[in-house]
Design a protein that fits this description.
The protein has helices at about 10-20, 30-35, 55-60, 75-85, 95-100, and strands spanning about 25-30, 45, 65-70, 90-95. It is α/β, with parallel strands linked by helices. The protein has one domain (about 10-100): Rhodanese-like domain (Oxidized Rhodanese, domain 1, 3-Layer(aba) Sandwich). The chain has a 4-stranded parallel beta sheet, with helices on both faces.
Amino acid sequence: MGLFGIFSQKESVDKIKEYLDKGAVVLDVRTQQEWDEDHLEGAKHIVLNTIPDHLEEIKSLDKPIIAVCKSGGRSQSATDFLNHQGLDVINGGPWQNVAQFVD
């Protein structure tokens, strides 16, 4: 299915822009070391395997979410889990996909 699931790259870019316009929170699910190397200013950092422990915190954001990681695999796992919890989440793929649209 590729990094973007059922979406083409253009559809994914359009979806990222749409979610950013709706005030989405960027949720970076990479490791602490990856985050420390570089990350999107203003993103929320919660390591993938700790997301269930932070579920109430994520729900309390009360905003759409764009999940990101290094390549799109972990963010897809986060997207699937959070969608199953009833949250409005898309997979943004690599965090740089979103960074290009944020000042």
